[in-house]
Design brief:
The protein is mainly α and about 500 residues long. Helix content is about 75%, strand content about 0%. It is globular.
């Protein structure tokens, strides 16, 4: 049977991941990982809420950072979306969204310190780039006919509001609601760098070995995500947006001289700062490239490729748990709970937990990335499968999966997988902060050594690498004629 383009691309990705496995480090180095895993499981079964200090404050801060960051990001994203036809706007948006929220947090920590503005900007800036891209795609898909029927004296703003935005409004609202859920995850994660959200308390509980507290915090986070639609009602959103800035806390005061020094001196390459000129710059950059950037790029690409394929395997394995073609009402409910937990757990948080249980290697990162992204794609593919009509004499069981459903959802599945490719790359890089030797490891090491110039160069390399992978994914989608399906991911999520 001849190989189609889809099969060739799939086989190529799988073979590449198999080769990458030969170079990866996947050992479990802890003395008794199953005992530690059992303690964590018991913490979830028997959570200890008595040890959680300032729980209400941590929840409020987590929600407040999410609302302020996502609110500012969506407002800026809409303005950028209206200018998205310009190359410089698209390039700018691609750059800011290619840098993970934790990298932005690390940058602003050096200038603003532990101030709420650090957490807000860390969420708002990359989200603005993402909002701009998706909002622009949604607006471009609107029917142009209503705009043509307007009188000539109608202003551009009126035409935009009453034609394109009015048509796109349900999709804009749906996507913004999805990004609010993502914002809650990001808000929790920035606690790992010192912001007073749930992640900060979770890291402290793990460090002290209080697994009951860890279980309590995780369950509260899942409850926060699961109940989002109950408390984040549209009529209450203006109230939340107005109140959230007052719930961020005060933090340490900003020392503006530090801000000025960071952007005018600290991030300037050392040879230029010391007056050595271009003659000293090239050896400095070459040493950084060979000693840190290239090893970081290699490990980032290696881990990304393995996680990408494992994500795909998990998604195609798990989507039947919520598909009406394979499960009943009770099984579907259990499947939904499973996938919600998987996609609601931030990959950084999950990798942090697995590192404590298994020790430092690539294994916790790969598993964390695959579980989180596999849960997202499996959820979307399962929903897509529910739209497929089957004939009455269709086979059941494995034959239904192999011959009836899986072939029909494979195109949308690949589109979603390629859409998440750049996201997996970005997440892979940031997991280096936990000690895995991706680009984030070298960024964090440079910051710890107060070599901010090296850290900024490595962050720029990370952004360029993410942009390159995004371009490759878009070209593969276009080659396989999957571009139209990829756009449905944000709104469906």
């Amino acid at each position: 049977m001849p190989l189609t383009a889809t099969r060739r691309v799939t086989l190529g990705l799988v073979l590449l991941a198999a080769v990458c496995l030969l170079f990866g480090d996947f050992e479990i180095s802890t003395h008794d990982p199953w005992h530690a895993l059992g303690r964590l499981f018991m913490g979830l079964i028997q959570p200890d809420f008595s040890r959680v200090d300032f729980l209400g404050e941590a929840l409020l801060r987590t929600v407040a950072f999410a609302f302020v960051g996502v609110g500012l990001g969506s407002a800026a994203g809409m303005l950028l979306a209206l200018l998205f036809r310009h190359v410089w706007v698209r390039t700018f948006c691609a750059f800011i969204r290619a840098i993970h929220e934790l990298f932005w947090a690390l940058i602003f920590l050096q200038s603003f310190g532990l101030h709420p503005i650090t957490g807000v900007l860390a969420i708002a800036i990359p989200y603005a780039g993402t909002f701009a891209k998706v909002y622009a795609e949604i607006l471009d898909e609107c029917d142009p006919q209503p705009e043509r029927s307007l009188p000539q004296r109608a202003g551009r703003l009126s035409a935009l509001v009453y034609t394109r935005i009015s048509q796109a409004w349900p999709h804009l609202v749906s996507y913004t609601a999805y990004r609010l859920e993502c914002g809650l995850r990001s808000s929790a994660v920035i606690g790992f760098v010192g912001m007073p959200t749930l992640g900060f308390h979770l890291a402290g509980a793990f460090a002290q070995g209080h697994y009951g507290t860890v279980g309590a915090l995780l369950l509260l986070f899942y409850a926060l995500i699961a109940s989002l639609r109950l408390w984040a009602r549209p009529r209450l959103l203006p109230l939340y947006l107005v109140a959230s800035p007052f719930l961020l806390g005060t933090g340490l005061p900003i020392v503006w001289s530090n801000v000025s020094r960071f952007f005018t001196e600290d991030i300037v390459p050392a040879p230029l700062r010391n007056g050595e000129g271009l003659e000293g710059l090239w050896p400095w950059f070459g040493d950084l490239l060979l000693g840190q950037a290239l090893p970081g790029i290699w490990n980032t690409l290696l881990l990304t490729q393995i996680a990408l394929v494992l994500t795909g395997v998990l998604a195609m394995t798990l989507f039947p748990v919520i598909s009406r073609h394979f499960t009943g009402r009770l099984g579907g409910t259990a499947g939904h709970v499973l996938l919600v937990v998987m996609r609601s757990t931030p990959e950084y948080l999950l990798a942090f937990i697995l590192l404590q249980l298994w020790g430092p290697s690539m294994l916790p990162a790969v598993v964390a990335l695959a579980l989180h992204n596999g849960g997202i794609i499996g959820h979307l593919v399962g929903r897509r499968s529910n739209e497929i009509p089957l004939r009455q004499d269709a086979p059941g069981g494995i034959n239904r999966y192999a011959y009836e459903v899986a072939p029909r959802v494979y195109g949308p599945f690949l589109a979603l997988l390629f859409y998440r490719w750049e996201i997996i790359m970005r997440e892979t890089a940031i997991l280096g902060i936990l000690g895995i030797a991706t680009l984030g490891f070298y960024v964090d090491s440079a910051i710890q050594e107060l070599r901010f110039d090296r850290a900024m160069v490595l962050i720029l390399i990370t952004a360029l690498l993410n942009i390159g992978v995004d371009i490759l994914a878009r070209r593969l989608r276009a080659h396989l004629r999957l571009s139209h399906t990829a756009r449905s991911e944000p709104a469906a999520a």
